[in-house]
Amino acid sequence: MRFMRVPFLLVAVLALVLSACVAQPPAAEEPMEAAATPAAEEEMAAMPEPGSQEEFEKILACVQENFPAESYFTNDYLPATDATWEPMDCESVDSIKVGMPWVLNDEEAPWYNAIELGYFSDVCLEVELVAGGPGLDHLQTLAGGAVDIAVVAGGSTVPTLVSSPTPADVVAVGTFLKHSPYVWLGLDPDTPQDQRSDKVLTPEDFIGAKVGLQPGNDYLFEFFANKHGIDHDAVDLVDAGFTPDPVLLGAMDYIGAWIMNQPRLMEEKGYMNWVAFQFSDWGWDGYGDVTVVRRETLEENPDLVRRFLAAQSQGLSYLLENPNESAEIAVVYGVDAQLTTEQALRRFELQEVLIRGSDDLPVSHMSAERWNTQVASMIQYDQLQLEACE
Description:
By secondary structure, the chain is an alpha/beta fold. The protein is built from 15 helices and 10 strands. It is 40% helix and 15% strand.
């Protein structure tokens, strides 16, 4: 028996030795994350916090370098502030079409004055005012050549169009309103109906509120929500028209409006306790009712632009100096709305601060800083894309 066990033991030992010499597959290892390089860590640390002032300053610098406001706006064709009005001797008259920012109501009072008081004819122009309104974009009709000059309600549409994938070469040459008139308008339940409210609304006041917006104004909500960190689902957005009636009836808490329009309608119905969230105080402060021309018009007929702006400025000056007479003219020319002189006067009162502005520039003049600031803010809060600044 012992003789038979020795070979068996030798074979077993030999097999064990041989098995130890065979290469075994390595044990599976957990994948290791690539360590961030110092350069990558430095770049990540240098990235500003989204929504921060640091991010805004970085975007603003990019805008000033790659898309400066001077590329799409100028004050050079506006009349000198000390210019005296002198009618021209006309050998011929230029007939032009001017697209208006809205339906023909009292919003267009400066241009009505320029027609009625002969300012346009004094500079050898025959002007046809082409009404705007829902579904009519006179910045597009200007680009397409259907009108010669356009007055666009929202100045922000100018850089948006100029920088778009399908741009048009247009230039802003003057403004009627130096601040955005856009508000969210409601009633203050803590103030008696016949008294003025001094309530100051904040973005948080709209959480859980029902807000009515007119078609095409969703972008203003997007900006508001993105800038102030409001959950998009926290505000109940519904379609609305152009009167404050849904708010007065309790169907909505707020409605998108212009500060010189709907509040006066509330007042007429006895609601003096209206309260407005002014977008210009909360980051959206562009120019309004901006006069725009095609660049080719500036290059080929700059004198026409100067004459038009001179007469337009005269009409605006007359409005500021003679509101009663301007109201009487407006109710005649504002054929798309049933207006009273009292309504027009209240409008003029509410909008005067927007016309005169808070800068040191003359009426109708614009600044590159304001344009660049708005464009940078639009980029920061996802309302405009500029490849160089993404």
